[in-house]
Amino acid sequence: MIQPFLKKLLVAFSALILLVYGTIYACSDGDWGWSFDSNFTPETFVDKSYSPLFLSSDVFYGIGFDTEHLTRFNSENIKDWSAYLEDRINEKDLTFFLTDSSSADVSNLYMYYKKGKPNKTSEKWNKKIKLDDVKTKDFLFFLNDAQTVETYSTQRFDSWSYDETIKNQVISDPRWIKTLEQKYSDSKDPFIKNRYWFLTIKADFYSDKPANGIAFFNQTEKSTPKNTLYYRALAYLAGIEYRQKNYAKSNYLYSKVFDKCPAMRVVSAYCFHPKEEKDWKQSLSMTKNDEEKAALWAIQGYYNDEEKAIAEIYKLQPKSLHIDYLLTRLINNQENKIDKSFKDKTVLENKKRTKDSIRKSTIDLVTKIAQSNKTSQPYLWNIAAGYLETLNGNFKQADKDFDDAENKMPKTPLAISQIRLLRLVNNLSKIDKLTPENEKTILADLSWLYLELPKNPIDNFRYENATAWSQNYLAALYRAQKNTVMAEIFNHDSGFYDNEKQLLDMKAFLSKNNKTEIEKIGASIYSLKLDDINYFQAVKATFNNKIPEAIAFMKQSDKLQNTVFYGNPFLGNIKDCHDCDHQAPQKKKYTMLDFLMIIQKLQDNIDKQTDVYSNSGILGNAFYNITHFGNGRIFYEGNIAGYGSTPDFFREPIMKMITDCSLAKAYYQKAFASSKNNEQKAKTQYMIAKCERNDYYNKKYYSLNLSTWDIQDDKTNFIAWQGFKNLKANYSKTKYYKEIINECGYFRTYVQK
To answer: Which of 42, 271, 286, 475 could form a disulfide with 328 if both were Cys (CB 3.0 to 4.6 A apart)?
Structure first.
């Protein structure tokens, strides 16, 4: 058995009955993807007709599924009829007749001709076109016949339905198809004759006796021009042969369509599928010359082995354009084998891993063909050979190959950018240790890659992979040279700023004015700015209750200090519901700097023994609300701390910081000690209980990083926090106690137990 073809299209071809239904039935008529994993852009030199066949993780590159079965030839059809009619019908009206919903108009005009009696439609169109003109009449008569066939060819098939009792309608009147044959025979006009020839074969395809189409084709082929209609008809014949289980003949015909009709390459590739090894060999035996053999290998190579297909085509027809598209697939497939992860690996380890992933046979074949200079686009092969040599660690040979390519290639923006990108990859790969001298070999290209291209992207150009790879490569070089700041610049580590020395070193680096050229490039692309670092320091200082320091850092964070809390961060409610607090009416919105300035004022009041109960309680609320449990989570979220709806979204040091309510608890305890009545005492005891509850959660769940499924029912609804015990024992007569019972189901469960 031959290796399975159509691996990517397994679902589409799992039931070959699709060939007799709807759009797939008519296949005889007719992404953050991939670019982020590749440095080799197929569009650089390969004809657009091949683009759906470029290597892709989707069914077809750039388009997903082929959806142009009904529209593929609209433009060409309009152009051909316009030339035939010699502007008797303007383009707008011609488009209406050929592609829009014109069936009713055509039918009514046909009846006008047959009966010789005007109707509303004829009166409408007589004002625009000369209905008595011979060519116009021939056009409308043909269109009436064509639209009859279209009622069968445009039936829709629900590809999600597996009910095999659903059948499409077919043309079951052979006499009507015979009238089309007769019109073909009788027509003296070559253009109309050619149209009726194609329409007859198409009608046979959608009839209950499709084999008649093969007979008609064989009888008339020699006198038929080899134009687009010829190859469209050939595709219908291929479909008929397939339905009759003549797989070898079907695939041979599809390869001819693939070769000669670029517009139908995607259709031919989609419908091509040998069932057995013998089918493939039989198809190959049907070819009449090297050109046909090359076409068959070209379409087979799409599904199986590009390298073998390229080798065979090169022996048969080295100037065939088919091997160019197969080359792009071969190179992209080689790229796909490379492990692109730099984590915990040195540059040398990465180079070895890359070299080991590239097949030697691929390098040998591409190099041989490139050196032969026999292909139609030798510069494409030079570029491919150079790139493979880069991956293979042969950097001097890569330079030579790129020089050869650059001397021959067309100077399109895409071609110039492609070779520049691959030269950068080669030049950077030469460097095992950064020095001021070798930095100069990459500076201009790094600036182009990182700064210019994102602002002025080139259509289809793949540069994202080179961006990520080069930054990882530079980071690995700096890491080996113990330059932690520059390693971080080119490859951000989320935990970098948990180390205070590294944080200060980065601040010093970003602040210095005398950066080298490569340092300037790095600083310009680094995802974090001084604002982010100052803000992060302000947050940490706040959680450590170092408010003067926090204010100083916050004031240095120009853009972030004016970020506004969604809710009032000084409120202390019975229920923790940050969404409720965010939606509640607010007389004043507080910025981050406002928040810190008010905290400092409250602390100053406490130091002066001014209203210690109220100031301590508000401070408790403030420090509670900026934890994970409060309404002010926005305070700690940022580009360094991170973002997330649950504590386990954050790295461990941040998780510990944002789930720690000890500072809030200390201020609630200070408020309790300063309270003057039972209402105040009840409120502070409840707030202390919330902190105790959160501390339990921290130790029970968050610190262990347990998933929801790991958490067992430990009857936490009935744990008596010390604050709850104090409330029940001492303050059950207060109004606040009743409010707690009304709002807090947890406490209500406890007291009713």
So the answer is: 42
